[in-house]
Amino acid sequence: MKVLVAVKRVVDANVKVGVKSDGTGVDISNVKMSINPFDEIAVEEAVRLKEAGAIAEVVAVSCGVEQSQETLRTALAIGADRAILIGTDEALQPLAVAKLLKAIVDREQPSLVMLGKQAIDDDSNQTGQMLAALAGLPQATFASKVVVAGGNATVSREVDGGMETLSLTLPAVVTTDLRLNEPRYVTLPNIMKAKKKPLEIVKPEALGVDVTPRLKTLKVSEPPKRSAGVKVPDVKTLVEKLKTEAKVL
After folding, report:
1. Which of 9, 117, 135, 218 could staple 71 via S-S, CB 3.0–4.6 A?
2. Is 152's pLDDT higher than 90?
3. Do the beta carbons of residue 3 and residue 77 sit within 8 Å?
4. Cα(77)–Cα(197) distance, rounded to whole angstroms?
5. Any residues with CB less than 8 A from the CB of 45 and at least 6 apart, and which?
6. Where is the Electron transfer flavoprotein alpha/beta-subunit N-terminal domain (predicted)?
């Protein structure tokens, strides 16, 4: 059995970004980039399944610029066996990514596809669902527990009313939530080993996928800054301000 894990290169979660001066997007020049945290959880879970003997191979795949190789090397250092980069400088939207992943799924024929429930840069939460629809595969989103056995995947997930458990016939698509696991610390020996693991680079054209953006961003702007708070000497003044300024009383 083979697991295909999709990973994305995003701005590090600890970095504060700003908007470009011309308002065309977020300024990510000279900022630290990392693997999307939800995708890192997906890689960790796939590696754990391999260590438990449930699967035989973990393949990491990413779509994007050449620097995404660094993200794939991180996945390889966690424990993935090989990696595939679909290289393009085009700004990829969720549907284009889903189509690219579908092409890789058709080629690799994995028993399970895992990816984070969303990316922390755009928070779209669409790619996994779109991939399942395009590939005609069963899906389970927001997984907090995954068990693979006997050609099936049992997935537990949190819903508004509590917990829900799904049984999927493999192959299937699973998106991961934060509660699924805690990714391991990547050691220096594993980082060195990752440099020797195979990393294949393909182009969207070779996969027969058009990644031209379907949506156009007109403008990006920062939210308005909150005004500073005001100290009042007593409750009477506070009530008066709530009446006259805030108009909540």
Report:
1. 9
2. yes
3. no
4. 9
5. 114, 143, 146, 176, 180, 181
6. 23-211
Instruction: At 54, list the tokens.
Output: 């449930």
CA angle 156, 161, 166 (to 5 degrees): 25
Answer yes or no: are the C-beta atoms of 115 and 149 closer than 8 Å: no
Q: Which of 49, 59, 214, 61 is nearest to 148 (CA)?
A: 49
Encoded tokens for 169: 């016939």
The residue count for the chain? 249
Q: Tell me the two tokens of residue 86.
A: 């679909």
Torsion of CA 69, 9, 71, 130, to 10 degrees: -90
Tokens standing for residue 140: 């389970």
**Phi, psi angles (nearest 5°) of residue 52:** -85, -5
Domain residue limits, the chain: 2-244
CATH of 2-244, one of 3.40.50.620, 3.30.565.10, 3.40.640.10, 1.10.3720.10: 3.40.50.620
